[in-house]
C-alpha cells in the first residue's frame, strides 16, 4: 500500500491540482455542494502521502514537518475550511515534487558520472575477438579499445598509442597522450588512436567505481550545520504544536491556531543546508576534486595553514636521472645496474627513477636482491650478487658507518645547489658513486598558492625529506613562509601537531603514500590522486584526481562558497518563518497564502544552492607578486 502510494505520488499531486482547478470552475458555475466534495477529495488525495510520511516518522520516534501539516489539515477539515485544506495539501505535495526535481538536478554531476560508466568491453579470449558485458571482464583479459570507445577497466597498455579524454577521472578535458606501458582508467574515452590493454582492476575495484562510491558517500555525509538542524527539527516540531495549542487557548481561534501550525513548518530551514552540501560536493566531483562529505567541507573552509610535501606535490613528481658520477675503478653502467637491481624492491619515487633509467638503457634485471633492509626516509641496504650496496642519503651513510670523502661531499653539495637530489651509492662500505636526480616545479603551483593566500590562508610551509639546498630553491621560487628539509615521516607528523597547537587549522597535502601519517594527523588531509591510487583515496579527506594544485585552490574556494551558501539559506529560512509568523499573529497572512510563501521559500533556498553547481574559481593572472615556477629542481 505504502509502496503503491509512493510510486504514484506524482500522479496524486497533479490529480489534486486538477481537482482544485475543477473546484474553481464549479464555484464559478454555482455548484457549491459539488465544489465542496471536490475540495474534500483533493484534500484526501494530496493528504494521504503527507499523512503516511508523518506516520512513518512517528514510528521512528521523529517529529517531522509532515506531522504539522497533517494535524493542521485535519483541523481545517474539522472547521469546514475545505479550500484551505485542499490548497495546503496540494502546495505541500507540489513543493515536495519540485524539491525532489531540483535536488535531483543538484546531484546531476553524480548522475553524469554514473552515465559515463561503460557497459561493454571488446576482449580477446582464446584468440577470438568477442564483445562481453563489462561485468564479465576478468583480471588478465586483453581488452581492445578503438577511437571513440570507452576504456572499460583499469589496466596497462600492451600495444598501441592514443589520445585519451580523462575528464571522468581528473575533471580535465584536455586529451592525455598514452603509450605502451602507461596506465589507463575505466570510463576514459579514446579521442584518437588504438590500444590493447591488460585488465588489472575490474568491476567495483576500478578507479571510476571508487570515485562514484566516494561521491555517493560524501553526498550522504552531513555537515555540522545539517546535524544541528536535524536535531533542531526534532525539538522544533513538538514545540510548534505546543505553541499552536497556546495560541488557541489565548485566542479561542482554531483557524488562527491551525494557520500558525502550518506556517511555522521549517521546510526551507531543513532543506537549505543539505542541498548546499550536495551541490558543493557535486561541483567538486565534476571538477576532479573528491571532497569526502559535508563535515570535511566545513573543516576545509576554516583552514588557514597549508603544509606541502615537495616531490609529487609542489613538483611534478616525474624526476629524472641527470648525471651519474662514479668514483674509484667502477664504471657508470655496472654501478647503475647494481643500484637498479637493489631498488627494484623499493616503492620510493627516487629509487624507481633509477630503475626507469636502467630500463631506458635496456639493462638486465635477472638477479634478485637479497637481505633487503629499508630505512624509511633514508634509503636501503641490499645484497646484489656478492656485493653489499647501501643507497640513500647522508643519514644512511652515517648510520652504516660509511665515510664520505671531502671531494665526494663537495661534488654532492654542488649538485644540490644546482637543484638536484644527490643519492649516495656505496659498495661494500665505500661510496662508489652519486646519482643526481632532478624534478620540476608544477606550472600551476605559484598561482594556486597565491589564490589560496588571497582566500584566507595565513601560512604556507613545505616539509620534505629532500636535501636543504633543493628544498630552499623550491621554497624561494614559490615564496613559501617556511621550509624544513631532510625530515622523516614522523618529523612531518610532529610539525603538523605543532602547527595545530599554535591554533592553526591545518591542511596537509602529499602523495598519499609516504605522507599518509601526516595527512591523517592534519585537520584536512589532501592527496594528489595519481589517477586515483587506493591509499590516497582512503587516507585523505580531499583527493585531487588530476594532480593539479589549481584544483586544490578550487576545492578551498568551493568549501568557503558552500559554507557561505549554507549560512545564506539558514538566515533566509529563519527570516521568512519569523515574518510569516508575525503576519499570522497580526492577521495579515492566511493559511493558503502563507503556505504559498512557505513553499516559495523552500524553492528559493534550493535555487540559491544550485548556484554552487556552476561555481568556478577565478583564475588569477601571474603578476609581479608571483615568483616564476620554472626553476629546475
Automatic annotation (TrEMBL):
<dbReference type="Pfam" id="PF00122">
    <property type="entry name" value="E1-E2_ATPase"/>
</dbReference>
<dbReference type="InterPro" id="IPR001757">
    <property type="entry name" value="P_typ_ATPase"/>
</dbReference>
<dbReference type="InterPro" id="IPR023214">
    <property type="entry name" value="HAD_sf"/>
</dbReference>
<comment type="similarity">
    <text>Belongs to the cation transport ATPase (P-type) (TC 3.A.3) family. Type IB subfamily.</text>
</comment>
<dbReference type="InterPro" id="IPR051014">
    <property type="entry name" value="Cation_Transport_ATPase_IB"/>
</dbReference>
<feature type="transmembrane region" description="Helical">
    <location>
        <begin position="570"/>
        <end position="589"/>
    </location>
</feature>
<dbReference type="InterPro" id="IPR023299">
    <property type="entry name" value="ATPase_P-typ_cyto_dom_N"/>
</dbReference>
<keyword id="KW-0406">Ion transport</keyword>
<keyword id="KW-1133">Transmembrane helix</keyword>
<keyword id="KW-0597">Phosphoprotein</keyword>
<dbReference type="InterPro" id="IPR027256">
    <property type="entry name" value="P-typ_ATPase_IB"/>
</dbReference>
<keyword id="KW-1003">Cell membrane</keyword>
<keyword id="KW-0067">ATP-binding</keyword>
<feature type="transmembrane region" description="Helical">
    <location>
        <begin position="12"/>
        <end position="31"/>
    </location>
</feature>
<dbReference type="InterPro" id="IPR036412">
    <property type="entry name" value="HAD-like_sf"/>
</dbReference>
<dbReference type="InterPro" id="IPR023298">
    <property type="entry name" value="ATPase_P-typ_TM_dom_sf"/>
</dbReference>
<keyword id="KW-0479">Metal-binding</keyword>
<protein>
    <recommendedName>
        <fullName>Cd(2+)-exporting ATPase</fullName>
        <ecNumber>7.2.2.21</ecNumber>
    </recommendedName>
</protein>
<feature type="transmembrane region" description="Helical">
    <location>
        <begin position="232"/>
        <end position="250"/>
    </location>
</feature>
<feature type="transmembrane region" description="Helical">
    <location>
        <begin position="595"/>
        <end position="614"/>
    </location>
</feature>
<keyword id="KW-0472">Membrane</keyword>
<keyword id="KW-0812">Transmembrane</keyword>
<feature type="domain" description="P-type ATPase A">
    <location>
        <begin position="116"/>
        <end position="216"/>
    </location>
</feature>
<dbReference type="InterPro" id="IPR059000">
    <property type="entry name" value="ATPase_P-type_domA"/>
</dbReference>
<dbReference type="Pfam" id="PF00702">
    <property type="entry name" value="Hydrolase"/>
</dbReference>
<feature type="transmembrane region" description="Helical">
    <location>
        <begin position="256"/>
        <end position="282"/>
    </location>
</feature>
<keyword id="KW-0547">Nucleotide-binding</keyword>
<feature type="transmembrane region" description="Helical">
    <location>
        <begin position="37"/>
        <end position="55"/>
    </location>
</feature>
<dbReference type="InterPro" id="IPR008250">
    <property type="entry name" value="ATPase_P-typ_transduc_dom_A_sf"/>
</dbReference>
<keyword id="KW-0104">Cadmium</keyword>
<keyword id="KW-0813">Transport</keyword>
<dbReference type="InterPro" id="IPR018303">
    <property type="entry name" value="ATPase_P-typ_P_site"/>
</dbReference>
